[in-house]
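Troubleshooting log. The previous run stalled partway through. Resubmitting the same two chains, unchanged.
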Amino acid sequence: MSRFPRSFGRPRRLNALKFFAAVAAAVLFHFLGVRLIPHFSQVIDVFLVVAVLYGLEGNSLGALFAGMFVGLVHDSLSGGPFGLFGFADTIIAYGAARLAQRLVIQRATGVLALVSFATVAQQAIVVGLALLLLPTPEVPNPVWVAIRAGACGLLGLSIYIASAHWRRTSEARRRGRMSRLRLG
Amino acid sequence: MDGSVDERRTGWVLIIVLAGQLVYLATQGARAGNTLLESLGVRLLGPAARSVANLPQDVAGLGEGMRTRSSLLDENRRLRREVEDLRLRLLQLNDVQGEASRLGAAVRHASPPLGRIRAVDVVYADHASWLRTLVIYTGGAPALVNQPVLSANGLVGRVVTVAGPYAKVQLITDRAASVGAMILRTRRQGIVRGSGRGSGTIELGFVPLQADVRPGDAVQTAGIDGVYPRGIPIGTVTSVSQGGQLFHNIQLAPAVDFGSLDQVYLLDHEPVPQELRETAPLERP
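Second attempt completed without errors. Output:
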């Protein structure tokens, strides 16, 4: 499996556009999921997956703000103090970006492990903050956290494989077009 | 060299951003507040939630219409009979209400008015996660912060954030929510809040061990918390055990099925009379 596609050399505006499109898709996916599956929000955190995958592109400053934005979007759709997920996702996305700068994630299973670990870490940060801020906070069930980690990991893996496949296909198509141009 | 400088700068940005968020969170505290950022978020996401909420309903409604066409006549007949029965019952209740008013007037007792209710649509309901919430669409007349939200079966929660035609509701199953409640059979008062077990159950606290509480007892709002009026069903006692040295540990099953809410009611209710609100503390006798 190839290394996770990096965005070096790409116009920033296009990257920002892609990011906002990903957030919009995540919001729609979340709304549909919550509408159709009763325990969807307990099992899948699509916003975190977006934050981690964006972080994997390796731009730590961009990932930091992307994580914060995605987290605040999630905060708008959840109870509790506003900013819990914003804080947690900022750290997670930044951590993912720093990791991507140091490690070359060669296998898709690496993405699965990373997203799963990020899910557990995010829940730990949110619970820690809730314990600090709320007088009698509710703590999520560890079984549900484990299920959530697995489900988010699988979602991250699926998006990663799909995007890698799409990139390969479009690259091959572009090369074919270029060679036809040269022949002509 | 440039890379390490950039990373150091990013590290500082991270620290500043995290510190800013922590300060923001700390100033909010436990208050589920009507903050500007939260209102903006709800306002931006509300229309998308509303569109998605209408989508499956329309598709399902189309299929259902085709299926139920044949049974509409039967249902219509049954509903007509029900309307007749209810009209009869309303006549009886009018009599009872008149008598209660006359008796109340005789002893100079004035019960507070319950207020007006209006139906609003639920556009987003997250009742499963541990930070559960509900987003409603109120249309042209916006909701008010702390406005009680009901369903046909009982109490749902209160409005915590208002964002134009959208509002965020804190459910009574939320660990941070508290409702002044009483056991209907004995009039014993306590406080209902989310049990924090993630299963959407609620518990009734601060009921002393001497109090008579049994499984099956109905619990309703007591009207003592300044938010909810008296008499709205909250739930039913499912189990009673000795919680500590002073109070019972009472578990309740909510009267409302939070998973099936697609329409709720906003209660226009003024818990504290305007005259009392306008009176300055020093002027009070």
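Takeaways: The radius of gyration of chain B is 24 Å. The CA atoms of residues 76 and 82 of chain B lie 10 Å apart.
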